[in-house]
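Tutorial, part two.
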Amino acid sequence: MKNEDKLLDAIGMIDEELIPEMPKAELSAKAADGKKASAKKSTKGRKAFWIEIGIAAAAVILVVAIALPKVLYKKKNRAVKAEAVYPEMAKYPESVSPVFRGDDYDPDAYREQYEKWRASRETFRNQPEGYADGFKKFLEKSTSTFAEEAGDENFVYSPLSLYLCMSIVAESADGNTRQEILDLLGVPDIETLRATSKSLFLANYVDDGAGKCLLANSIWMNNRFDYKNDTVERIATEYLASVFSGDPEDEKYIEEFRNWLNRQTDGLLTDYVDDLPMDKDLLLMVASTINYNGKWGMRFHEDETKPGTFHAPAGDVTCDFMNMEYEKFDCHTGDGYTAIELPVTGNGKMRLILPDKDTSAQNLLKDKDFMEFLNNSYTDGNVFGEAMVDLSLPKFDVSYKNDMIDELQKLGVHDAFDKDRGNFGSITDQGPDDKIFVKKVEQDVRVMIDEEGVKGAAITVAMIVEQCAPSAKYTFVFDRPFIFEVFSDTGAPLFVGVVNDPTSK
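Running the prediction step on this input gives:
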């Protein structure tokens, strides 16, 4: 078993090879040496360890200076072992300076900043060919399974948040426990998963002033246990995860965990976070978050918003409808539904799917052909075409909390949830009598729209414990249950949901 000095030495020697690569990037800063610090405490012969470390890197791509993710960031807080600092992106011109707006407009300065922004966005998108193949396979398997939860209540699911969370669980597992998760995530081996997860993270990360799609990972350890140094180090570097350690029965540690979740999601899910506990037998808590915010490419005018009737399954309700007349959008007519896509400035799009009057959202979500359409975000040269649209869309603010273990078992993940078969020997030394298993996989998601745009947040946590063809004109009136998707700028589905009652949270 490795002692804390070896761990600190190993972490202190992290260099550029461990920093997530970015296509066409040239590393120009060497990794800083890590500081050593230690505090000893043992239970059942296991030691705790503490890390303070800082690593920085920079890249110059085309005409753009972009900071690569700083894998570890020095913190004085005793619970923080390693804190990820996420990518810095060139800013969209209007968000940078008044010289890009109104009477102060400077075309040359604007053009220069715009080119930096455009090159920056392309750099993040430019991931290895086929990097999302595993995620697409995961979508095909998982979306219909989780969509079965959509009854008469509102429903929201975040595929990307669950994928990133389960990736770290797979890294912590071993043997058949790991293999079942790899099969679910659509990759042949753990090396492919590391590359896939990193590319998905970087390709979908947006923080440029035009839009926001902030992703964050973290692991929370129990300071009574000893962990394998190379695995902790790998989770920090390969998955851009912050690393924390403390006593899961200490209210200050639990509060820090909740505060981290609220910071990552701008407090949009505080009702869920404030009740999120840690288990006294906690071995590892994995948390993955998404914080999305984008403005409509064509905004609704508030003076056009009018009250109207929405035909919810439980009875008619009155809500505010945003309205727009005779505007051009991408539309599609399918078997039992029509669909429209609303562009989000610099941050993907929102797809709205209205079932025909004689078809329910639940029946559509059980249809194989419809699910293939739902999982396909790419419209260029595909089924969508431009049409003139009259649109009436209710404002909504919907959220959904989902205990995901039953669905994950249906998808083939079994050993991870079985105390007798769970194998997490990758993260800690596990003896034949050690009962380690995943006690909880839970997701809470919230999506809201108004005249300005769309916001969404998702938290996925996994707790590992030890126990002993369109027509020329469309009219869309979303006055009955409908389905929605929010895609990132790369086409990755961030949120999938059903609005059965826009007045209910």
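The chain is about 25% helix and 30% strand. In part three we will examine how such features are distributed along the chain.
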